[in-house]
Amino acid sequence: NKARGRQDPQRGPRICSSTPPSRALAPSAVTSHMLVLFDTPAGHALFSLVNGKLLKGSPDELSDAFATTEAAKKSVKLKAFHKFEDTAEAVQSATALVEGKLSSGMKKFLKKNLASADTLAVCDAKLGGAIKDKLSIQCVYDDSVMQLMRGLRAQIEELVSGTSASEMRSMAIGLAHSLSRYKLKFSPDKVDTMIVQAIGLLDDLDKELNTYAMRLKEWYGWHFPELGKIVPDNLMYAKGIQMMSTRDKCKGIDFSSIMPEEVEKEMKDAAEISMGTEVSEEDVTNILMLCDQVVSLSEYRSQLWDYLKNRMQAIAPNLSVMVGELVGARLIAHAGSLMNLAKQPASTVQILGAEKALFRALKAKHDTPKYGLIYHASLVGQAQPKHKGKISRVLAAKCALSIRVDALGESSTATIGFDARNKVEERMRVLEGKLPRNAAEMAQAKDALRQTQPAVTSYANGAPSRGYNEAADSTLVGGGADGATGGKADKKDKKDKKDKKDKKESAEGKVKKEKKVKEEKEGKAEEAPKKKKRKAEAEEEGGAKKKKTKE
Questions:
Q1: Given 23, 32, 187, 245, which residue has the most CB atoms within 10 angstroms?
Q2: Average pLDDT estimate for 117-138
């Protein structure tokens, strides 16, 4: 019973102090000054026990004491009640209570309504220890107190005056929501669902915008076919059509607000000699309506992109620094949420988006893909083709750390992301040979070089040179002609050795070939009698069969 913190039948309730709950606390007899501290969503309540022997009773007696409102009012009496001024105070008090600490509001309330000789029943041993340390008031916590708290919670709306049941319920809901936000570090700026929806809408807008723009170019191309090559940009193309309607009005319009001067000049020159057909006013009206759609969609896409960048900077600043807002948003959308992405290892982040290729490679037992969505990051794009796999692996490892900082960290700055990006860029320069791999390795290599080349090193350090030694020179005996003759003799010796070697190899090859031919002949000679014998036996069997057939 002591180990489990339960009440010993032969002893009184447990006294709370600053000592750990696992250690036995000094027993204390229940007096007439036994008070109960109970926290409600509306405020702190302090009850006095009418029946001092209630805590010594059995659990059934405690349950019966709070079975009805009348029985509860006979068992306990409200001594004092402190109502919270606002939700912030309620959240502060509830947070302190969850952590086993004494809030400032509760401290003032207990100081005002308790005497040092009183004993206080509390719902948490840690809270009792804090009250004991700060206010020097004996606190009690055991199974009987917990049963008493359950009874008070069932009848609290009737026992506390000044608050109705509906008001208490609404306060409880508000406090629960506020406390949940505090516990989960919730912030409206950190809703990654907005990113998932925004990136999906951005992709849909790009597809829709591309479809509309291609339709517009095909439609208006019948009237002005040269314009599509002169103005490749979709938005500029649509705005140009809006301004001129038909090509015959092109020459007298100033397009400097939407396109460069050289493009404008080329367009006006092409309009004069265009091979397009004429169109009616009704056709032009419908084409202009399609232009309005393209322009409005382009403007909305630009606005949505700005919104997505701001959201990514608020939710995942480190990831945005590493791979950019667009790739980071796609990673979050693919994983479902920022928290799901933070749970993935670096190897999964590296191939996220290439699941089909991965399972196809595993099925065929081929090499697995090296990158997925992360391939579109700027750092991977800057790397050389032979280094893309290594850079994507390093980048995925740093991204995994950055994502976890964004999801679980409290800082809103991108310090980790900038440091990680610098390391990836340094690794890229090392692979390209622009930086030494390791300063320590370079120092060791230099030391080894000094040991292997001491003379060169000593001269480089300023030691005097040994000078030129003429005695070390060697001259050719007999002059240049003899030297030339000697050189020819050496060449002749080498040639003779080579000829001897070739003759020896050819002789050995000839012997081997003759031996092989001889073995083949002997084998055929041995097989010949056997073949004759088998042939004779076969003829005898054939003759016997013919004889039987005739008979």
A1: 245
A2: 85
Count of alpha carbons within 13 angstroms of residue 54, beta-carbon side: 27
Q: How many CB atoms lie within 10 A of CB 304?
A: 15
- Cα separations in angstroms, 327 against 164, 198, 317, 513: 53, 13, 13, 71
Structural domains present in the chain: 34-184 (3.30.420.220), 192-302 (1.10.287.4070), 316-451 (1.10.246.90)
Q: What's the rounded Cα separation, in Å, for the pair 410 and 54?
A: 48
Mean pLDDT check: name the lowest of 90-94, 223-227, 274-278, 474-478: 474-478
Residue 544 scores a pLDDT above 90: no
Task: State the amino acid at position 151 in one-letter form.
Answer: G
Tokens of 509: 């090859």
> CA dihedral in degrees (116, 122, 127, 128; nearest 10)?
40
d(CA 409, CA 242): 50
Distance of CA 311 to the CA centre of its chain: 17
Of how many residues is the chain composed? 551
pTM of the model: 0.51
DSSP line for 392-452: HHHHHHHHHHHHHHHHH-S--S-HHHHHHHHHHHHHHHHHTTSS-S-HHHHHHHHHHHHHH
At 88, the pLDDT band (50, 70, 90 cuts) reads confident
The predicted structure's pLDDT at residue 108: 86
For residue 367, the surrounding DSSP H or E stretch is none
pLDDT at 491: 60
For 233, the 3-state DSSP assignment is coil
**DSSP letter string, 499-528:** HHHHHHHHHHHHHHHHHHHHHHHHHHHHHH
Please state, in angstroms and as integers, the Cα–Cα distance from residue 263 to each residue in 171, 228, 267, 353, following that order. Answer: 67, 12, 6, 40
Range among 3-12, 42-51, 301-310 with highest mean pLDDT value: 301-310
Name the residue with higher pLDDT: 5 or 314.
Answer: 314
Q: What is the DSSP letter of 231?
A: -
| 39 C-beta neighbours (distance < 10 Å), count | 19
Place of tokens 């508000």: 174
Highest-scoring range by mean pLDDT, 2-11, 357-366, 436-445: 357-366
